[in-house]
Design goal:
Shape of chain B: globular
Number of helices of chain B: 17
Number of helices of chain A: 11
CATH architecture of chain A: Orthogonal Bundle
Number of domains of chain A: 1
Largest sheet of chain A: 2 strands, antiparallel
Oligomer: heterodimer
Strand content of chain A: under 5%
Radius of gyration of chain B: 26 Å
Helix content of chain A: over 70%
Distance between the termini of chain A: 42 Å
CATH topology of chain A: ABC transporter involved in vitamin B12 uptake, BtuC
Number of strands of chain A: 4
Largest sheet of chain B: 2 strands, antiparallel
Strand order of the largest sheet of chain A: 1-4
Largest interface: A-B, 47 and 46 residues
CATH class of chain A: Mainly Alpha
Order of helices and strands of chain B: HHHHHHHEEEHHHHEHHHEEHHH
Structural class of chain B: mainly alpha
Distance between the termini of chain B: 34 Å
Radius of gyration of chain A: 19 Å
Shape of chain A: globular
Chain lengths: ~290, ~450
Amino acid sequence: MLDKILPYLLAGVSVGGQYALIAIGYTMVYGILRLINFAHGDIFTVAGFVMVYAAATMPLSVSIPLTIVLTVILGVLVEKVAYRPLRSAPRMSVMISAIGMSYLLQNSMWYLTGGLAKQYPVLPWISDRVNVAGTTTSRVTIITPFLTILLVAALVLLIKRTKIGMAMRAASRDFETAQLMGIKINNVISFTFVVGTLLAAVGSMLYFSNYATVTPTVGAMPGLKAFVAAVFGGIGSIPGAVIGGFIIGICESLIKGTGLTTFSDAFTFALLIVILAVKPTGLFGENLTEKV
Amino acid sequence: MIKKNDHKKAWIALVIAVAVLVLVGALDNLPHVPSMLLTVLQKGAIYALVAVSMNLLNGFTGLFSLGQAGFMLLGAYTYAVLTVPVERQASVYQRYEDGGLGFSVTQSLGNSMGQFGLLLGVVICLILAGCVAGLFAWLIGLPVLKLKSDYLAIATLGFAEIIRAVVQYEKLGPVTNGSNLLYGFTGFTDFHLGSLKLTTVMPFLFSGLCIFVVVLLINSTYGRAFKAIRDDEVAAEAMGINLAKHKRMSFIISSFFAGISGALLAMFQASVQAVAFKAAMTYEILLIVVIGGIGSITGSAIAAFLFVGCSEWGLRFLDNETTLKNFDAKVKFAVVFGVLIAAVVAFGLLRMKRKGKKLVDKVQRDGKTYYQRRITGPILGLGLAIVALGWDVWFVISPRLKLPLLRSGFRMVVFSVIIMIVVLFFREGIMGDKELWDLGKKKRSAKAKAGAGNE
């Protein structure tokens, strides 16, 4: 029994960790701007493509940091171009802008890469096959949850113990009051995007090491699922996003194991609707009446 | 009470509608009409309907839903399943034994009553397609309509994905053909009047009628209730509007028409496959609504034709690698390009002037004078324009004849940049929340006001 479930469980934990890393970007941005950053999934894909091209010409020791830096720059740029001009606009406009940005990123990627699936570079060591309790799997599967938890612990420390973290907490509690208290809100938001896209870039490396090919639209689905994870855990809450990511990853993988692959995506969204209907604030969400 | 004026208006509307149908019919049958134009007209009419249906929800009721593609899929599949001809069902459903329904509504009616029967069958199936979408909207609405703004958006998006997954489910294969293509059903090309083709007339007729119904709905008491909910839910409830009932109604009606437009899309494409109805499709429709103006029916219709026209036809040249023939052609291109850049710059300056923005603003505060600079935007714009013009000059001088950047996919990049510009700088869209027939009225009332002021 267990040795039948184990491979799926391992895959689920791994993909769950990757969802968690993306979900943090969603949940942090939503916590401060009350905006679903639809472009986040596409930024995740861009990170994949940058890695493909960088690794083709440069050694990994250069291409990995380069990918992370470029992705972060893109994330901040997207915020500056598409969200900052609409700061005082109605929420619907900002959301439409996010959808437009996602459309632009997808089309640009299609244009620049020719629309063909690109082979993701094999990262040495983490792509090696290893034996775990009788099943072979790649090492990335094992590393992902630990790396995720490590990064999240660092992030929580950053938010709880540093000045910028305090500013972020203040901004997510009350945007305007934080501004009145002398917090430079634009810097805080930029920093939020830096952290979010950095984690998405790391997540993309782990994700594509498992899936091997990158196409311009590949990020849309993991992006949406990561958002569901963020909602499930309680949007605005980082531990919530992580636990949500793991739960969704594991459930999805187990459903695939039972042969109902068509429904693995549907399950995620069904879960979203159930959680919104039963406990709209999510597992760890704060009780804010305006949310739902 | 019906005013006399309304009769006149109704007649004018009818005459215009008939004129449009005749014109489209003429285009259908005249020789030398580019087939691309007909494609754009057909697809544009269908997208106009789905954009209007989305606008009813997003623009008039203020419910931000992203489930349109799912309802279109339901409509398209309902229509297709009902109308695949009996003799073709074996080949369409080849992967499933006993696949297909064993009857075809349009075929049986068409055989017994000719073209009229065919029309009747299509109308019945379209209405059924709408009803299936509406039924699902009712079911989905039960849990989802309690949510607000972005939560509603993400939940409806999720439902669209669930519907897509269910339709592709293997066990439903004998009806939906699983994830395979459905084809061979009645399409627009099957319609003709004697020897006259009606391929483009039919989508215009169907979607025109549906849009007309939506316009009537919006101008009714229900429509006013929708708008009241959009403007202020609390106030609307206080005025005695039943929020849940009206939201549900708007959601079901919007989905009903989305279902019909999905069926029309299936007729236009002559085939349906569930993979096409992704979230990206909903996004495209949303962008059409935004470009047209949230809360404007005519805006959505105009934007739909513009959107389809640009993406299918007008911007096609951007997708082709182009090498100019000779130096003259190059100079011509450079002049056109330069004028285009100059026009954009002039437009930007005009806009700044109209909005009363200056490069440096003097602000008096606490007895001190501050200078506010607004130069990042203009400098960036001017810088880009100068770079573009510089490139233009360099291109004329250089011996190259091949135009840069143009290759497959560039069209969509340009297109999405234009959309982003609309979203960021022209949030009103083409029409704002006005209708085409409001434009003359507004001017007149403004004049009347000015006249009253003078007296």
